[in-house]
Amino acid sequence: MPKLLFAGTIFSSAFLLFLVQPLISKQILPWFGGSAAVWATCMVFFQVTLLAGYAYADWLSRRPSARQQALIHVALLALSLVFLPVVANATWKPAGNEDPALRILGLLIATVGLPYLMLSTTGPLIQSWVSRTLNDTRVYRFFSLSNLASLVALMSYPFVLEPRAPLLLQAQGWSVVYAVFVVLCSACAVYFLRHGAVVRAPDTTDPPTVEPPRPLDQWLWLALSAMGSWLLVAVTNHITQNIAAIPFLWLLPLTLYLLTFVLAFESDRWYTRARFLPLTAVALAVCAYGLTDGLPDDLRITIPTYTVGMFIVCLFLHGELARMRPVPRYLTRFYLMLSLGGALGGIAVGLVAPRVLTSYYELGAGYVITALLAARVLRERRAWRLGALGLATACAVFLAIQVHDDRQDARLMARNFYGTLQSLDAHRDDPRNDVRQLYHGSVKHGEQYLLASRSAEPTTYYGPTSGIGRAILARNGAARKIGLIGLGAGTLAAYGRDGDTYRFYEINPQVIDFAQREFSFMRDSKARIETVLGDARLSLEKEAPQDFDILAVDAFSGDSVPVHLITREAIAVYLRHVKPDGIIAFHVTNRFLQLPPVVEQIAAASGLHVALIHDDAKDSELRATDWVLVARDAATLSAQVPGRAADPIVPIPGLRLWSDDFNNLFQVLK
After folding, report:
1. Is the preceding omega at residue 85 within 30 degrees of 0, hence cis?
2. CATH class of 431-668
3. pLDDT digit string, tens, across residues 412-447
4. What are the extents of the domains in the chain?
5. Is 565 strand, coil or helix?
6. Helix/strand/coil (H, E, C) string of 464-531?
């Protein structure tokens, strides 16, 4: 019965620990532009707080009496209830000019700081109590159990909880279960208080000749853990930004990462050097080579290569950690170093790399460091050590090639919280068709002809036969006021006339800089150009009605789909800013998501009319596009597409109305 109590407490704590991560992240995503970087920053907070929890567990487990440990922990558990329910306060919404990463970290501390800290202490602390009260030295199986619970929570949120409960109910339900966890953990403390000092002295579970871990061992614990965390975040960035902008790709590497912990610490039979050293060497070499564009440009090859490669390398790293685990007397120190390593790896990739690197070079650097670390871990065999050093050299060469190729093609490169930007000139067979292009990760965000006589031509998704082109050209009377959510290269400014006003809303300051420095659409436009820095929806909520003739919502082309811009509440905000006969134009061109039915549903819920304009852009250099035009009156839409019928919108069976509470990208995956 005591073992069941301890196991249930550990399972519930790990489950809540990982369930609150997507729960709180989704609450604040709309405040920071829906960027994938929000999730990465949240991961850094969770890793650092986990480190603090493990440090607390290590400190508390060294208190001389069971009474002190139990009373201190129960007091903090009770205090953590003050934070409930875990609902983000609206006062943390950004104004637009703050550092978003620091703002998110402060928000998370204020919202879920102490409850998350107490959850993070549970695994190592309870295992320490188990080793002192029960005659069981297999405490590391509890670590495997906690990772299994984390995996269950991670998978259950998007498939089970998110589609069925609004955000407020999710937060309230989590808070109720957390209160139950507090009761369970307090019961564990009471059991330890009664038996910890009597049944088992702290050191009697270990052989009398066991020496404490050497400093070198502790540094290796830290390094192995850090590189696992490093590769997790770096591979996630790479496949979601540079390979394919497919939603939920972040879920796959995180699932595999947790699985490596489960396998490595559940039993020694899963990881053996004879089996995994060759696989790890091949995985490192192939993945590092792929960064030089050495792999075929096929998602069926590249995505499995990097995710399976990360799984193999992380199982090597965590398998070596499991081989080096100390006796239970030192398990809290072991977990402390693991959490410190995880935090350092996450900080290096999530916070430091965007500020010091101009592109996603941290993955290649991670492969080099991992190979060097393998040479140190495998030092007992000269052949293994030399092989690892040779592999590190090869990975370094591949990294150098990647950096060289990027810089050779790029005119300008930059990176910040929102991702990487790159401008480059693409030269074609006919010099009249040479263009300057803007890329955000792997997604093209605009281009402009280099030839002066063609520089004012709308390009890519914004040609005169596209939905937005037709809508703008149909307003050929008085001066127009156009609102645009998403700047890109500023292409739509090419439609500007004398007396027009084009007001761009852009969350990324570097995009504004690129559009003004590398492209001339805004500079050469005859219209008055205005730019508003910050999340568009938050900005529009604060502004007085703008009386737009057209409001173009152009933010759904890539992976980090800001769903808060395509909900029932969002369209209510837009309606306040468009004229009675105005148009809201949603750009829904997307390789992976079927968004027109979403727009149709939210429009119908508000009593609005829609028209899908699909443009194949045949016999031109423009891109095929899908735009959904929304208006209060069907006649307004008819005027936008004279002589052309709107395309049918194919419904998605079972699709639910998207709101700030209910929105699920899995339902609209193509």
Report:
1. yes
2. alpha beta
3. 999 888 888 999 999 988 899 999 999 887 788 899
4. 1-203, 212-417, 431-668
5. helix
6. CCCHHHHHHHHCCCCCCEEEEECCCCCHHHHHCCCCCEEEEEECCHHHHHHHHHHCCHHHHCCCEEEE
Looking at the domain covering 1-203, what would its CATH class be?
mainly alpha
Encode pLDDT of 116-129 as tens digits. 999 999 988 888 88
Kindly tell me if the per-residue pLDDT of 200 is higher than 70: no
- Is residue 295 within 8 Å of 302, Cβ to Cβ? yes
Classify strands 609-615 and 625-631 as parallel, antiparallel or unpaired: antiparallel
Kindly state the tokens that stand for 555.
């933010």
Q: 399 φ, ψ to 5°?
A: -65, -45
Q: Mean pLDDT score of the chain, rounded to an integer?
A: 87
Share of the chain above pLDDT 90, in %: 50
User: Quick count: other Cβ atoms within 10 Å of Cβ 464?
Assistant: 15
3-state secondary structure of 323: helix
Topology agreement, domain 1-203 and domain 431-668: no
Q: What is the pTM of this model?
A: 0.78
**Residue whose entry in the numeric block shows the structure tokens 């990294």:** 399
Rounded to an integer, what distance in angstroms lies between the CA atom of residue 494 and that of residue 276?
A: 57
3-state secondary structure of 49: helix
**Tokens of residue 35, six digits:** 């960027």
Q: How many CA atoms lie within 13 A of 608 on its CB side?
A: 26
User: Who has greater pLDDT, 197 or 323?
Assistant: 323
CATH class of 212-417: mainly alpha
Rounded Cα gap, residues 268 and 277, in angstroms: 15
3-state DSSP call for residue 544?
Answer: coil
Give kind and range of the element (H or E) at residue 421.
Answer: strand 419-426
Torsion of CA 377, 379, 382, 386, to 10 degrees: 50
Question: For the CA atoms of the chain, what is the radius of gyration?
Answer: 28
